[in-house]
Amino acid sequence: MKKLIHFLVSLSIFASCTTSKIYTSRSCSVCLNPNDGILLLPLAWEPSFQLLSVAEKNQLERQILSDLRGKGFTKIELYDQLDYELLKS
């Protein structure tokens, strides 16, 4: 009985790890230079962000943009604002 409980606890721990839809770390094989242009897709398009409110998604998008700009990336734009930027010029 004790082995069965130990097995079920171990199984539940591993099952919870593999069913998670939020990944805290992801390795990237693409190296970007600050001169490269980056187009950030809206978080609303990603199903894993559906639980966030619109205000939370907007805040997170602004935070990502400011973090990348703080690291020296100057050619970065949010895809939703791209049409506005093209029409404005």
Features:
89 residues, mainly alpha, two-stranded parallel ribbon, 49% helix
Global outline:
elongated
Q: What is the percentage of strand-forming residues?
A: 5-15%
Output the structural class: mainly alpha
Give the terminus-to-terminus CA distance.
72 Å
What is the number of domains? 1
Report the helical percentage. 40-55%
Radius of gyration: 20 Å
Strand line-up in the sheet with most strands: 1-2
Number of strands: 2
Output the number of helix runs.
3
Mean pLDDT: 72
String of helices and strands? HEHEH
Largest beta-sheet characterization: 2 strands, parallel
Low-pLDDT ranges: 14-22
Descriptive account of the structure:
The protein is mainly alpha-helical. It has one domain (about 1-89). It is about 50% helix and about 5% strand. The chain is built from 3 helices and 2 strands, in the order αβαβα. A two-stranded parallel sheet has the order 1-2. Strand 1 (about 40), helix 2 (about 55-70) and strand 2 form a beta-alpha-beta unit. The longest helix is centred in the first third of the chain and has 17 residues, at about 1-20. The radius of gyration is 20 Å and the shape is elongated. The termini are far apart. Residues about 15-20 have low confidence and may be disordered.
